[in-house]
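Please decode residue identities from the backbone states below.
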């Protein structure tokens, strides 16, 4: 019944031609004649009748004959999406309002239309529809950076499973997530959508997410492939990067995700790599992705990405999104004129159809529009707490017992940030604020101070400049919440609060999103003067009375911490924890959950300490056309550890309410490497509370022909919850590829001879045990195809 209605709605839509210039957060897209291309309606009865005489898509074996039966017109429309609702025209698919992409259906051949929707922190569709009482809220899960901080793929897979259920039940075929670009620089406005500065973490987390999502029978899309590490001029900037840095850092996570989870789709990115748009790069999309890695799904462009549909087809960027009539016309003409071989189109169509036959739409799944949001909220809350990182806890002010009265400071206690903005936003039913979360956990909050904050915020929000409005990209993209200045505190106010409560908690919040990078200015990467003041004065007053002060960071990426962290007693990095934010914060603050999160991104002492500080976001500074990755392979902790640049909080760092010993490092096969290395280490809870610990396995490889970073993460695992005195043996296996480096001269992963150290620890700087092994002779571990070589000379950081 529902399905019939859906089909009818789709068919009734008019084709609309639009020529528009879209302004996306300062960026201009020209969309010439973007047009919806819905096919003429054919009922199922009619299609069944056609089936007897015309090939009909039934399963994999029918694909070739269906492609043969397609006209050139149909082929050129099928590889181009049907346009994007809200961007100037009538939505071509009102059945899933807020979906950003759809494919062209060919009912006479049994090819249905598919629906694609964002995104990384939860399904992004519109929550309400005109004339309907039913709502379509989706769960806002913790942001990817927070999920990565769990260092627990099982938690991430559980999120994927829950999120994928929403995708399926709301009638969407493919999710445009996860996103796993490397957090090259802390200022990238979209870092919150990404996992880590390290490709192993990024790849493992993305694979877990894809496996969870796809267990529902819907598709995942890993994005943005590749080296899209900034928002500034993202649609045109040329990333100049070495083949080694590509293979070891920027492509590695994608390689892991492709091999370990088989995502149905890969989204090429906006930027160029070494002179060529990624969506037009056969090197990237054919040679590396398919030949080297064996990928067999399909590739779609990012929205309005690239500039030549024919080159996109040739490169094996199978589908152009969101798509326009102009693009399909160009493709058709190119085939007619001989510029494009029709066989190329056939190949790309086959790539898509092989996935299409697995979709809910093809399988005629009757979606309920009723996912189990209550159950998913529980999953989101658990993961949010699991991803929180305890940065500081001098003399254990945390956890806080319920009989202690708390004063909350900071606007974000009320306006808690669930996640970032843009396509990675989620239209969730609610966000539990930190204040509400603590209240509902049974804490007594200082009501006077809370009331002051409430009226301050309500007052500002009623003023025009601070009014909360739909996103400038349309209400499907969530809300635009202009940042309001931090409420200034008077001395009397602080003094009263410190007398009236047992502990002060200061909440610092930040938000960022698609379309813009963050800046090293006060109020963004740096604390504002009011925030600095709040921290100094509140700490001084509470300390005068022998009371403690904690800071909760409700942020999506690193901020400056070194100038103020010594003033406070505890710092809990809550990240942007999704809609259950306040509950999850309360779980950790109360000790119901013992924090076990670890940083998957470095917090530098100062921005200048970041390896890419000088080159981000490219040159010329006022309008970058090129960004040169001079730091080469030395991204994040690889830079800090190799060049002895001390961070504020290092990669892998995170405290617990208990203590752990990591010892008994054992490596197999004696001292010589053969094919695999078995590593094990014992973890013991030596503290007083139950808790979990992450064991990180780093390797220091010898410099040979290729120089190596001081340490590289090669494996990790998290214990189960260990009771005091309880132990757990964790075991790891490393193969030659895991230990190899990429040699550009030979186009190969090589393992160089020499002495290697295996280091197990609780962070990249907190190594607890080391063992060594040797490799007797140089080995070529894997040959790959030559691809993506830089076309210009540039300086590369070396030791
Ligand atoms: C973003 C993608 C997103 C797409 C559709 C683009 O602007 O870069 O991540 O999936 O829009 O919303």
């Amino acid at each position: 019944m529902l399905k019939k209605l859906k089909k009818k709605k789709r068919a009734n839509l008019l084709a609309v031609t639009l020529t528009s210039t879209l302004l996306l957060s300062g960026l201009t897209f020209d969309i010439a004649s973007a047009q919806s291309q819905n096919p003429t309606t054919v009922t199922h009865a009619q299609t069944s009748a056609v089936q007897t005489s015309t090939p009909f898509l039934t399963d994999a074996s029918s694909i070739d004959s269906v492609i043969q039966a397609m006209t050139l017109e149909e082929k050129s429309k099928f590889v181009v999406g049907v346009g994007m609702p809200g961007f100037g025209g009538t939505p071509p698919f009102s059945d899933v309002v807020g979906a950003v992409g759809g494919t062209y259906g060919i009912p006479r051949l049994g090819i249905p239309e598919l629906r694609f929707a964002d995104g990384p922190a939860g399904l992004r569709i519109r929550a309400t529809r005109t004339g309907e009482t039913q709502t379509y809220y989706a769960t806002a899960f913790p942001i990817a950076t927070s999920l990565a901080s769990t260092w627990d793929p099982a938690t991430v897979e559980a999120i994927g499973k829950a999120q994928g259920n929403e995708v399926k039940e709301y009638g969407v075929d493919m999710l445009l997530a996860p996103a796993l670009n490397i957090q090259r620089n802390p200022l990238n406005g979209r870092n919150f959508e990404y996992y880590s500065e390290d490709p192993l973490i990024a790849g493992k987390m993305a694979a877990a997410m894809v496996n969870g999502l796809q267990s529902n029978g819907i598709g995942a899309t890993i994005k943005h492939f590749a080296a899209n590490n900034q928002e500034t001029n993202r649609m045109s900037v040329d990333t100049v990067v070495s083949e080694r840095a590509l293979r070891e850092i920027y492509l590695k996570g994608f390689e892991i995700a492709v091999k370990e989870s088989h995502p149905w789709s890969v989204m090429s990115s906006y930027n160029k790599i070494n002179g060529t748009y990624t969506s037009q790069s056969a090197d990237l999309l054919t040679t590396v992705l398919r030949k080297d890695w064996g990928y067999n799904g399909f590739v779609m462009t990012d929205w309005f990405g690239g500039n030549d549909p024919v080159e996109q087809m040739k490169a094996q960027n199978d589908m152009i999104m969101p798509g326009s009539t102009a693009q399909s016309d160009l493709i058709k003409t190119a085939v007619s004129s001989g510029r494009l071989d029709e066989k190329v189109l056939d190949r790309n169509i086959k790539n898509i159809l092989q996935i299409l036959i697995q979709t809910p739409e093809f399988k005629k799944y009757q979606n309920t529009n009723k996912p189990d949001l209550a159950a998913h909220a529980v999953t989101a809350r658990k993961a949010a707490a699991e991803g929180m990182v305890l940065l500081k806890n001098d003399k254990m002010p945390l956890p806080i017992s319920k009989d202690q009265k708390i004063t909350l400071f900071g606007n974000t206690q009320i306006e808690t940030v669930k996640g970032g903005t843009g396509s990675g936003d989620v239209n969730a039913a609610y966000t539990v604020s930190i204040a509400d979360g603590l209240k509902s956990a049974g804490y007594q909050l200082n009501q006077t101070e809370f009331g002051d904050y409430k009226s301050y915020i309500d007052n500002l929000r009623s003023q025009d400049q601070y009014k909360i409005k739909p996103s400038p990209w349309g209400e499907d993209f969530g809300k635009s919440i202009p940042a309001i200045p931090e409420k200034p505190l008077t001395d009397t106010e602080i003094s009263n609060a410190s007398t009236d409560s047992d502990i002060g908690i200061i909440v610092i919040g930040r938000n960022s999103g698609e379309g813009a990078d963050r800046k090293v200015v006060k109020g963004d990467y740096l604390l504002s003067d009011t925030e600095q003041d709040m921290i100094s004065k509140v700490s001084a007053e509470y300390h005068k009375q022998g009371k403690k002060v904690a800071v909760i960071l409700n942020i999506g990426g690193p901020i400056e911490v070194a100038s103020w962290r010594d003033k406070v007693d505890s710092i809990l990095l809550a990240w942007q924890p999704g809609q259950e934010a306040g509950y999850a914060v309360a779980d950790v603050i109360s000790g119901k959950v013992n924090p076990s999160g670890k940083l998957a991104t470095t917090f530098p002492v100062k921005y200048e300490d970041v390896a890419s500080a000088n080159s981000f976001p490219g040159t010329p500074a006022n309008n970058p056309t090129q960004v040169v990755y001079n730091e080469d392979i030395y991204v994040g902790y690889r830079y800090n550890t190799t060049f002895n640049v001390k961070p504020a909080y290092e990669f892998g760092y995170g405290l617990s309410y208990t203590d752990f010993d990591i010892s008994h490092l054992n490596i197999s096969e004696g001292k010589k490497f053969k094919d695999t290395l078995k590593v094990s280490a014992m973890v013991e809870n030596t503290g007083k509370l139950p808790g979990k610990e992450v064991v990180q396995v780093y390797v220091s490889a010898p410099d040979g022909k290729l120089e190596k970073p001081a340490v590289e993460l090669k494996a990790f695992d998290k214990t189960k919850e260990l009771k005091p005195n309880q132990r757990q043996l964790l075991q790891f296996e490393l193969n030659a590829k895991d230990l190899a480096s990429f040699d550009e001269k030979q186009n190969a992963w090589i393992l160089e001879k020499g002495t290697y150290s295996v280091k197990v620890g609780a962070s990249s700087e907190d190594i607890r045990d080391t063992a060594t092994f040797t490799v007797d002779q140089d080995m070529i571990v894997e040959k790959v195809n030559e691809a993506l070589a830089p076309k210009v000379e540039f300086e590369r950081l070396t030791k």
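Observation: The mean pLDDT is 93.
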